[in-house]
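Weekly sync, protein design subgroup
Attendees: M.S., D.O., the rotation student, P.L. (late)

Item 1: inverse folding check
M.S. brought a backbone from last month's batch and wanted to see whether the design step gives back something sensible before we order anything. D.O. pointed out we never logged the input encoding, so this time it goes straight into the notes. C-alpha cells as presented (70 positions):
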C-alpha cells in the first residue's frame, strides 16, 4: 500500500471516541475506507477518494454532536 494511503487511513481511527453514535458512525467510515484501500489499486484518485471520504466522515461525526430539535 502506498505511504499516502497508509497515512490517510490513520485518520479513520475511532477507538478514542466514546461509545455510542460518535463511535458507531466513525467506525462505519473506518470499515469502508479500509475495504476500499485494500480492494482498489494505488493511484492519485484513490488518495483523493480517501480524502473526500474523510471529509464526509468528519461531517457525519459532527452531525452526531448537534442536539435534536424538540
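Designed sequence read out in the meeting:
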Amino acid at each position: 500500500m502506498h505511504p499516502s494511503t497508509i497515512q490517510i487511513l490513520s485518520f479513520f481511527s475511532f477507538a478514542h471516541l466514546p461509545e455510542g453514535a460518535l463511535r458507531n458512525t466513525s467506525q462505519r467510515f473506518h470499515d469502508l475506507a479500509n475495504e476500499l484501500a485494500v480492494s482498489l489499486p494505488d493511484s492519485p484518485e484513490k488518495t483523493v477518494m480517501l480524502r473526500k471520504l474523510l471529509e464526509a466522515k468528519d461531517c457525519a461525526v459532527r452531525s452526531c454532536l448537534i442536539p435534536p430539535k424538540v
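Discussion: The chain has one domain: 3-12+19-63. Residues 4 and 47 are 7 Å apart (CA to CA).
Action: P.L. to compare against the previous round before Friday.
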